[in-house]
């Protein structure tokens, strides 16, 4: 799944997350790469989910490698989902972070 150098670089980052979506890109599934069940992820793709890309922090900087270009409104929705996912993961480690929901 991660043959390209751009995906490999981002996959090595901190909090690496696989991004899947329904074909209309209205719902995202974010999967922690470190603990993901690759067989389940492959089943999700066979069942109609689309591999969008990977996001992580690389040297403390947010990085995303996308499978193909997506429009601005989808990027905004994806960014919100990724930030919320990161906040939830940090809070699970003991951080107390709250991010307000931004509705576009």
Main sheet: strand order: 2-1-3-4
The number of helices is 3
Overall geometric form: globular
Gap between N and C termini: 32 Å
Percentage of residues in strands: 25-35%
As for the number of domains, it is 1
Q: Which secondary-structure class do the elements indicate? A: alpha+beta
Portion of residues within helices: 25-40%
- Report mean pLDDT, rounded to a whole number: 86
How many beta strands in the DSSP annotation?
4
Low-confidence parts, pLDDT < 50 over ≥5 residues? Answer: none
Radius of gyration, in Å, reads: 13 Å
Helix/strand order: HEEHEEH
Characterize the biggest β-sheet: 4 strands, antiparallel
What topology emerges from the helices and strands here?
Layout lengths: L4 H7 L2 E8 L6 E5 L5 H9 L3 E9 L2 E6 L5 H21 L12
Antiparallel strand pairs: 1-2, 1-3, 3-4
Give a quick precis of the structure.
With 104 residues, the chain is α+β, with helices and mostly antiparallel strands.
Structure description:
There is one protein chain. With 104 residues, this protein is α+β, with helices and mostly antiparallel strands. The protein has one domain (5-92). 36% of the residues lie in helices and 27% in strands. The chain has three helices and four strands. The chain has a four-stranded antiparallel beta sheet with strand order 2-1-3-4, with helices on both faces. It is globular, with a radius of gyration of 13 Å.
């Amino acid at each position: 799944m991660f043959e390209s150098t751009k995906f490999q670089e981002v996959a090595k980052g901190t909090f690496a997350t696989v991004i899947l979506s329904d074909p209309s890109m209205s719902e995202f599934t974010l999967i922690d790469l470190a603990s993901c069940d690759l067989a389940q992820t492959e089943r999700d793709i066979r069942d109609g989910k689309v591999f969008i890309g990977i996001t992580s922090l690389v040297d403390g900087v947010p990085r995303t490698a996308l499978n193909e270009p997506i429009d601005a409104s989808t990027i905004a929705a994806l960014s919100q989902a990724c930030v919320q996912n990161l906040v939830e993961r940090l809070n699970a480690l003991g951080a107390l972070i709250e991010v307000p929901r931004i509705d576009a």
